[in-house]
């Protein structure tokens, strides 16, 4: 790097120096020659102007021999050749040659210009003198008429000799200046490349993580400022890296302390980060950048991850893996196109729920036998006329019936909550089912002076469902509605919306306070305990209804307020999976 930069800078200087010192002599020599030629031309012109008055009388009177002798004498004194040419271009006098032996000069360019009234100038090889000459010609006039031309000329070898001598000196000066320039260029190149190379070496060290690296330059100017800025940047990077390292250590500590299983996946499903709980649960040593399905062969987890990526939103689902139950929460991080999955081990909770359900089922079975016996004995005693304590027996019977109802509801609820509980799916005509249920409650409603009404919407289609469980749902809802309605009646509405059937059961009873609505589907929850006990309620009816609806993949909502009655809305899919 250092040599490369030095060669580039020094080479650039050399190219500039060479171009400069090649162009300067060429241009300067041409300018100097032009200057000297112009100066000599002006001198010759002045001489011609000075001598013209002396030449004019002899030319006008045609005293050519006298004129020729005058010119030869004058030419020796001024060290220049003088030629006089008449109007016809004939040479009549010359300082160097015999005019009679000279050819016509009528076509010479400088003579043509002079005869035209101007100043003629020309540079060419002289055949007569056999050397390159500079010619300047002026017209000799009298009363505005041209008598002839006086032409001054001088050999250009004088200028060439002067220029050659000057070129030698200039060349020597250029060589010395070039050598000096090369030396200066070398020092300048070294002065630039050395600090830049130092900065490059420091930058490479910084890139490798050596944040303590600093650059100290003796040079000034921009490179000094660059070195100072580099050192400031290194200081900040060292501080930021230290802070980042501390934060990473803190993050590692936090992640390691999380008891739940945690892993971070990129958009392709590669594992980017895990905690100690994950590594213990899934033998996850060396899982970095592996695909999650290489470590966790769990179809439910794979399905959940795929769903999160497709919908780009968070999801929570229970999954079972290696005889353990997990509540899996997957968060989609849109800024990084990553997913954070946290698995909560709920195996113990599931076991407790299973034990609870088993306990309910067992206790219900255990209670049913003695209760049945008690009820049988009570009924037997009632039939005997001798018994006078009929009032007490009625109380025993009523409480026994209530216990039997509770046990029956508990058994049904326990059955509905079983994980593998299967629905016996068949085609169910909701209209027929509702009509049959209304007939069951017809006498009870009439005894209380209540009306029962069924409204059926257009194009209501049969649905695929479990008829027995839907019948239980209708019975529980209608039983509650009639029990808690003193006047008015109960209305059932059956309608169709797309692929869903909507069942609405509305009464004009006492209603439910708004504060109690969120909890009415909880088991054993009753709004008015005294009224419920009086009417024989168990507190399990609505819980059973909700479980039946959820098993069919539907929803149930309740709307109510005191004194206005209650409305239950059930939405069931036409095809239960």
Please explain how this structure is put together:
There is one protein chain. It is built from 14 helices and 17 strands. The chain is α+β, with helices and mostly antiparallel strands and 577 residues long. The chain has four domains: 2-162, PAS domain (Beta-Lactamase, 2-Layer Sandwich); 258-345, 2-Layer Sandwich (Beta-Lactamase), CATH 3.30.450; 350-416, Orthogonal Bundle (Helix Hairpins); 426-573, Heat Shock Protein 90, CATH 3.30.565. The strands form four sheets. It has a five-stranded antiparallel β-sheet. Helix 9 (347-383) runs antiparallel to helix 10 (390-416), helix 10 (390-416) packs parallel to helix 14 and helix 12 packs antiparallel against helix 14 (541-551). The two termini are 72 Å apart. Residues 530-536 have low confidence and may be disordered. InterPro entries: BphY/WalK/GraS-like, HAMP_dom, HATPase_C_sf, HATPase_dom, His_kinase_dom, HisK_dim/P_dom, HisK_dim/P_sf, PAS-like_dom_sf. It is a multi-pass membrane protein. It is found in: Cell membrane; Membrane raft. It is an enzyme of class 2 (transferase).
Largest sheet: 5 strands, antiparallel
C-alpha Rg, in Å?
A: 61 Å
CATH architectural category of the largest domain: 2-Layer Sandwich
Strand order of the largest sheet: 2-1-5-4-3
Per-chain topology:
Blueprint lengths: L1 H59 L3 H15 L2 E6 L4 E4 L14 H7 L4 E7 L4 E12 L2 E11 L1 H51 L13 H37 L3 E5 L5 E4 L1 H7 L9 H4 L3 H13 L3 E7 L2 E10 L4 E8 L1 H37 L6 H27 L9 E3 L1 H18 L3 E6 L6 E3 L1 H17 L5 E9 L2 E8 L21 H7 L5 H11 L3 E7 L3 E9 L4
Parallel strand pairs: 12-14
Antiparallel strand pairs: 1-2, 1-5, 3-4, 4-5, 6-7, 6-10, 8-9, 9-10, 11-13, 14-15, 15-17, 16-17
Helix pairs in contact: 1-4, 4-5, 9-10, 10-14, 11-12, 12-14
């Amino acid at each position: 790097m250092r040599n490369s930069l030095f060669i580039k800078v020094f080479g650039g200087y050399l190219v500039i120096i060479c171009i400069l010192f090649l162009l300067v002599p060429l241009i300067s020599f041409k300018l100097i020659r032009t200057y000297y030629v112009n100066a000599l031309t002006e001198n010759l012109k002045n001489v011609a102007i000075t001598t013209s008055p002396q030449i004019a009388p002899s030319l006008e009177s045609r005293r050519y021999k006298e004129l020729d002798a005058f010119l030869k004498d004058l030419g020796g004194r001024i060290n220049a050749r003088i030629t006089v040419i008449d109007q016809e271009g004939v040479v009549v006098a010359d300082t160097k040659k015999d005019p009679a032996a000279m050819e016509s000069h009528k076509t010479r360019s400088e003579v043509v210009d002079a005869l035209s009234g101007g100043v003629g100038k020309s540079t060419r090889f002289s055949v007569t003198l056999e050397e390159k000459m500079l010619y300047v010609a002026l017209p000799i006039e009298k009363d505005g008429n041209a008598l002839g031309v006086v032409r001054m000329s001088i050999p250009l070898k004088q200028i060439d000799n002067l220029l050659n001598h000057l070129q030698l000196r200039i060349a020597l000066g250029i060589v010395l200046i070039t050598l000096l320039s090369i030396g200066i260029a070398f020092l300048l190149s070294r002065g630039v490349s050395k600090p830049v190379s130092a900065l490059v070496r420091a930058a490479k060290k910084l890139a490798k993580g050596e944040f303590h690296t600093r650059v100290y330059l003796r040079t000034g100017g921009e490179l000094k400022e660059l070195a100072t800025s580099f050192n400031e940047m290194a200081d900040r990077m060292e501080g930021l890296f230290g802070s980042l390292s501390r934060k990473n250590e803190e993050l590692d500590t936090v992640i390691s302390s999380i008891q739940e299983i945690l892993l971070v996946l990129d958009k392709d499903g590669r594992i980017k980060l895990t905690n100690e709980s994950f590594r213990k649960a899934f033998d996850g040593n060396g899982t970095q950048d592996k695909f999650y399905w290489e470590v966790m062969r769990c179809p439910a987890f794979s399905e959940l991850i795929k769903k999160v990526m497709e919908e780009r939103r968070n999801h929570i689902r229970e999954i079972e893996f290696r005889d353990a139950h997990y509540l899996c929460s997957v968060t989609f991080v849109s800024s990084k196109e990553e997913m954070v999955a946290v698995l909560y081990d709920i195996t113990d909770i599931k076991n407790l729920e299973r034990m609870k359900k088993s306990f309910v089922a067992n206790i219900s079975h255990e209670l049913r036998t003695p209760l049945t016996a008690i009820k049988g004995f009570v009924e037997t005693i009632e039939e005997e006329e001798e018994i006078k304590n009929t009032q007490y027996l009625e109380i025993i019977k009523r409480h026994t019936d209530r216990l039997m109802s509770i046990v029956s509801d508990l058994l049904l609820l326990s059955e509905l909550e079983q994980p593998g509980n299967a629905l016996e799916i068949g085609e169910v005509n909701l209209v027929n089912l509702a009509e049959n249920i209304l007939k069951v409650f017809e006498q009870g409603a009439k005894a209380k002076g209540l009306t029962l009404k069924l409204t059926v919407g257009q194009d209501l289609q049969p649905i695929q469902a479990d008829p027995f469980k839907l019948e239980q749902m209708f019975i529980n809802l209608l039983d509650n509605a009639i029990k808690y309605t003193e006047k008015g009646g109960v209305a059932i509405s059956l309608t169709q919306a797309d692929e869903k059937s909507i069942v609405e059961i509305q009464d004009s009873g006492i209603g439910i306070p708004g504060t109690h609505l969120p909890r009415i589907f909880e088991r054993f929850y009753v709004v008015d305990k005294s009224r419920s006990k009086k009417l024989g309620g168990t507190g399990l009816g609505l819980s059973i209804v909700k479980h039946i609806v959820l098993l069919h993949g539907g929803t149930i909502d309740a709307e109510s307020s005191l004194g206005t009655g209650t409305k239950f809305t059930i939405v069931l899919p036409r095809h239960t999976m």
